[in-house]
Design brief:
Blueprint (H helix, E strand, L loop, with lengths): L1 E5 L2 E5 L5 H7 L23 E4 L6 E2 L10 E3 L3 H17 L14 H8 L23 E3 L9 H9 L6 E3 L6 E3 L16 H5 L5 E3 L11 E6 L8 E7 L2 E7 L11 H5 L14 E4 L2 E4 L2 H19 L4 E4 L6 H15 L4 E2 L7 H10 L17 E5 L3 H4 L1 H12 L3 E5 L5 H5 L2 E3 L6 H14 L5 H7 E2 L1 H7 L5 H8 L3 H13 L3 E5 L1 H4 L4 H14 L9 E4 L6 H6 L6 E2 L3 E2 L3 H11 L11 H7 L2 E5 L3 H4 L3 H10 L2 E6 L11 E4 L8 E4 L4 E5 L12 H11 L9 H11 L16 E2 L23 E2 L18 E6 L15 H6 L4 E4 L1 H7 L6 E5 L4 E8 L7 E5 L27 E7 L5
Parallel strand pairs: 1-5, 15-16, 15-25, 17-18, 17-21, 18-19, 20-31, 21-22, 25-26, 26-27, 32-36, 33-35
Antiparallel strand pairs: 1-2, 3-4, 3-5, 6-9, 7-8, 10-11, 11-12, 13-14, 13-27, 23-24, 28-29, 29-30, 32-37, 33-36, 34-35, 34-37
Helix pairs in contact: 8-25, 8-26, 9-19, 13-16, 13-17, 13-19, 16-17
The structure holds ligand MGD (2 copies), iron/sulfur cluster (SF4) (3 copies) and molybdenum atom.
């Protein structure tokens, strides 16, 4: 600590901070235009100048480190004069249209001019007259309003890692621009809007649908409803309308968002929102009262249970809903109905992670934290298209790369991160175990493994060592279709680094070999001592906003909240006591089993008619079911088939919590009133339990969290009070526990890390004469799953308006098809017509379809064959045939 004097008053501050930081910490306001605490100081606007005793010139406080005995004046005459001059000069070049500028009221230049009494630019400077770039779908750039603070350029390159924009030309004509003359739309820009959020003036502005003035709005902190990164954001509302979204500096996003968090909010107030319960009568939906709809559901529950027993009912809970809602959903099924037939989309997603890591480590969650990637030495990304699907995590990977980290990518597609990678292994789909075993074979042959760690913290190494003998880099290179030397290089790079983290997602899990592939990852990490270590670990990137939470809350047929097994007597008894009922002990059915066998199904927030494999089969199953309830925010393809549809309130209309991929429990807040007559899912579930004669009396979701904490050890210390400003990472065992940044520091959950031998086996479907191509499926940045939400955001749809199939140029030539032409794609299960995108992202004979679209839906083609342990279907490999559609004349 050092002692300094600011404006005549003594302060004790940390020695490694700047004068600007010292002032901020002590509530002394210093104006800045170019400063951003996340970036290196740039000192270009010079507005933060201060006077320091003994120095002749004014010094920019953002770049000045404190020194013991320093005497600083922040608002001396000299300082104020300098600031006035700077503002005057800036304003002289500025368009001076504050009356009509959308930024008015929230513009730093305007505010400072007011604060410093700068009335009009007194310099007779020339005003600029540069063209406005409105080519981007989401925001525009008006260079005439730009004050050249450079923040946008630095945010884009240093934080976002995209470098789409820079400062073009020199002198008076200096302006922010893209390398190409065609502007933003023709650049690398991914429309994250992080530059827009950083711009202090109206030069970078969202093209909002609704116009509003800052003072008419309210801002509420909440959590992004899309992916599992759990970015914190503020929703800006005018009346009951959400009109903007702004990044908030949360622990996992550090003030960054991706395009969906920033611009993906218009679904909330979309006219298509379900506003009233619907009951199907004579094949047609009719509006109904809540009373009528809920009574019908309750009578059907009773009737089905009486006739066929509790196990004739099943429910899909929702990774889109809050923890509190997921907790109540499973409580409804287990305690009030009496069945464990509960499952959710984790079955299609990370079921193999849960089963694989439960075996080898004892728990299926991400071991380390998002921010730890920043200080990793090696980042190994396998089967995760991180830039499109966990975009804010990808920004941190790129930041780490700038700091010197090495990146290895293994993916059949040349994804964006492949370009940034030091080694890119473009493996064939379905060859993960081979490539991982090949790396381990080399590590063992060359004794690059961590002997002490293996000795102390693991078991069964010898068996795995034995199992790897046949996986020589030569052999593996052939299986995977990559260069042997690259496998060796990757093995060396991973094993020789001190802190190496593995990041994986659907490219690993969605295979019939999913569980084994996850265990291969675990073997590799254990072998090199990367589990229980900071900046390393085994990191399954969880997909949905609250899929981690939906699993934690017991949305699985075998697990009560906190992964406590339904079949363990002492566990069942504990919950029987807590809930005052008797509970079933037998494990329930999984998603596909439920679809195939129950009489009554209750789906909360899922859309299997598009997201499950083999849609023809799903449709058949749903039609077979006697009574189907769908509770959603929109009338989905699945809801169309329901007997009763219940309108749910969206994340913006309710309080609760989501748990992100790094196990962080964060608040979701009610921002506006429920749309129409919709109700929060927790309220609906509570009413149903009440009507079933199992009274529940929660007045607020915080009371549900109190109950969760009392029965779920990992959430034992979570309360709304504690997570008011920043979420806590579980395990958080009691009220004094700070939460857990990374797992297994002292001990791995199962005791010792288990090495488990796994062998490469092929995919369920192989190519043959009839179906000669491999189809893999996945996602794109601008769309989210079945598009119930992103499909209702006009600008996102403009970016990716329709389905397509990626085909390599060589394959396209063989097929005689050109870019944008239509083809018929057929698998053993169905066929679709779809537009061709000729690309070098995929290799010859491998194809890719994003599964988002109802028209040309990939899931007509995909395979239901599933991993035997996790029951996750092989959504990443199907054999298909492709034919050019001949145009009739
Ligand atoms: N924009 C957007 N973001 C999302 C979502 C969304 O729908 N849209 N969904 C969220 C959800 S729920 C999830 S689960 C995550 C999913 O996130 P990801 O897993 O990143 O998404 P995918 O596109 O399904 O697949 C990832 C990668 O796996 C590769 N792959 C295919 N087969 C193989 C293989 O055999 N081996 C290897 N190594 N790689 C393979 C694909 O080429 C693709 O690049 O995204 C989340 N984020
Ligand atoms: N071919 C192929 N298929 C796949 C995948 C793949 O990679 N390839 N990936 C799979 C994966 S990983 C996943 S996670 C699944 C996702 O599959 P789903 O979960 O079925 O897909 P979503 O579109 O996210 O469906 C969520 C539903 O919840 C609704 N919703 C949103 N908020 C709320 C709310 O607050 N309350 C209620 N009641 N409803 C709400 C939405 O409108 C939407 O209808 O898809 C899987 N399907
Ligand atoms: S929107 Fe994002 S990617 Fe595009 S220029 Fe701005 S910061 Fe860069
Ligand atoms: S556009 Fe905005 S953030 Fe970028 S340099 Fe100009 S004023 Fe600064
Ligand atoms: S990265 Fe995920 S959580 Fe963050 S803004 Fe984008 S979709 Fe939302
Ligand atoms: Mo997922």
């Amino acid at each position: 600590m050092v002692n300094i004097v600011i404006n005549g008053k003594q302060y004790e501050v940390h020695e490694d901070i700047t004068v600007l930081q010292a002032c901020k910490e002590n509530g002394i306001d210093i104006p800045t235009l170019c400063y951003d605490e996340r970036l290196e100081p740039d000192s270009s606007c010079r507005l933060c100048v201060v006077e320091v005793e003994g120095k002749r010139n004014l010094i920019t406080s953002c770049s000045l480190k404190v020194e013991d005995g320093m005497n600083i004046e922040t608002h001396s005459k000299k300082v104020i004069k300098a600031r006035k001059d700077i503002l005057d000069l800036l304003f002289s070049n500025h368009p001076n249209d504050c009356l009509t500028c959308e930024k008015s009221g929230n513009c730093k230049l305007q505010n400072y001019c007011y604060d410093y009494n700068v009335k009009a630019g007194s310099y007779k400077g020339e005003k600029r007259n540069l063209p406005i770039d409105d080519s981007n779908h989401f925001y525009y750039h008006d260079p005439n309003k730009c004050i050249l603070c450079g923040k946008c350029v630095r945010v884009c390159s240093d934080l976002q890692g995209t470098s789409a924009i820079g400062l073009n030309e020199r002198g008076f004509r200096t302006h922010v621009g893209t390398p190409s003359k065609n502007g933003l739309e023709d650049s690398d820009c991914v429309s994250c809007g992080n530059c827009v959020s950083a711009c202090p003036v109206g030069a970078l502005m969202p093209k909002s649908r609704e116009s509003f003035r800052e003072w008419e709005t309210k801002s509420t902190l909440t959590t992004c409803p899309y992916c599992g990164v759990g970015c914190q954001l503020e929703l800006i509302t005018k009346g009951n309308q959400v009109v903007d979204s702004k990044p908030y500096k949360g622990p996992s996003n550090n003030g960054l968002l991706c395009v969906k968090g920033k611009f993906g909010y218009p679904f909330i107030n979309h006219p298509d929102r379900l506003k009233t319960p619907l009951i199907k009568k004579n094949g047609k939906f009719e509006e109904a009262s809540w009373e009528e709809a809920l009574n019908l559901i309750v009578s059907k529950i009773k009737e089905t249970k009486e006739k066929y027993g509790a196990n004739a009912l099943g429910g899909f809970t929702s990774a889109r809903c809050t923890n509190e809602e997921n907790y109540l959903f499973q409580k409804l099924f287990r305690a009030a109905i009496g069945t464990n037939n509960i499952d959710h989309c984790a079955r299609l997603c990370h079921a193999s992670t849960v089963s694989g890591l439960a075996t080898t480590l004892g728990s299926g969650a991400m071991t380390n934290s998002i921010n730890e990637v920043l200080d990793s030495d090696v980042i190994f990304i396998i089967g995760s298209n991180t830039t499109e699907n966990h975009p804010v995590i990808a920004t941190k990977m790129k930041q780490a790369k700038k700091k010197g980290a090495k990146i290895i990518v293994a993916d059949p597609r040349k994804i964006e991160l492949a370009d940034k990678a030091d080694i890119f292994l473009q493996i064939k789909p379905g060859t993960n175990i081979a490539v991982l075993n090949g790396m381990m074979n080399y590590i063992i042959e060359n004794e690059l493994y961590d002997k002490d760690y293996i000795e102390e913290r693991t078991e069964n190494f010898e068996e795995v060592k034995e199992s790897l003998i046949e996986y020589t880099p030569e052999k593996v290179a052939e299986i995977c279709g990559v260069n042997k030397d690259d496998i060796i290089k990757a093995a060396r790079m991973y094993a020789e680094s001190d802190k190496a983290g593995i990041y994986y997602a659907m490219g690993i899990t969605q295979h019939i070999t999913g569980t084994n592939s996850v265990m291969a990852i675990s073997n590799l990490a254990l072998m090199c001592g990367n589990v229980g270590k900071e900046n390393a670990g085994v990191n399954p990137l969880r997909g949905q906003n609250n899929v981690q939470g939906a699993c934690d809350m017991g949305g699985l047929p075998s697990d009560l909240p906190g992964y406590q097994k339904v079949f363990k007597e002492e566990i069942a008894e504990k919950f029987e006591k807590a809930w005052g009922v008797s509970l079933p002990r037998e494990v329930g059915m999984t998603m596909s089993e439920i679809l195939d066998s129950v009489k009554m199904l209750y789906i909360m927030g899922e859309n299997p008619m598009l997201s499950d494999p083999d849609i023809n089969h799903v449709k058949h199953s749903l039609e077979r079911i006697d009574f189907l309830v769908v509770q959603d925010i929109f009338l989905t393809e699945t809801a169309e088939l329901a007997d009763v549809v219940l309108p749910a309130a969206s994340f913006a209309e309710k309080d609760g919590t989501f748990t992100n991929t790094e196990r962080r429990v964060q608040r979701v807040r009610k921002v506006i009133e429920s749309i129409g007559d919709s109700k929060a899912d927790w309220q609906i579930l509570m009413e149903i339990m009440n009507k079933l004669g199992y009274p529940q009396k929660y007045r607020h979701p915080s009371e549900i969290m109190e109950e969760i904490a009392s029965v779920t050890p990992q959430y034992g210390g979570i309360t709304y009070d504690r997570i008011e400003t920043e979420g806590i990472q579980w395990p958080c065992l009691d009220k004094d526990h700070p939460g857990t940044k990374y797992l297994y520091k002292d001990a791995i959950a199962r005791g010792k890390g288990l090495f488990f031998p796994v062998y490469h086996t092929g995919s369920a479907e192989t190519t043959d004469k009839e179906y000669p191509y491999i189809l893999t499926t996945g996602r794109v940045l601008y769309q989210y799953h079945t598009r119930t939400m992103t499909g209702r955001v006009e600008k996102l749809n403009e970016k990716v308006p329709e389905s397509y199939i990626e085909i390599n140029e060589v394959t396209a030539n063989k097929l005689g098809v050109k870019d944008s032409e239509k083809v018929k794609v057929t698998s053993r299960r169905g066929s679709i017509d779809i537009k061709v995108k000729v690309t070098d992202i995929v290799e010859d004979n491998v194809m890719f379809i994003p599964f988002h679209f109802a028209e040309g839906a990939a899931n007509y083609l995909t395979n239901t064959k599933a991993d035997s342990a996790a029951k996750i279907p092989e959504l990443k490999v199907a054999a298909v045939n492709v034919e050019k559609i001949q145009r009739s004349c």
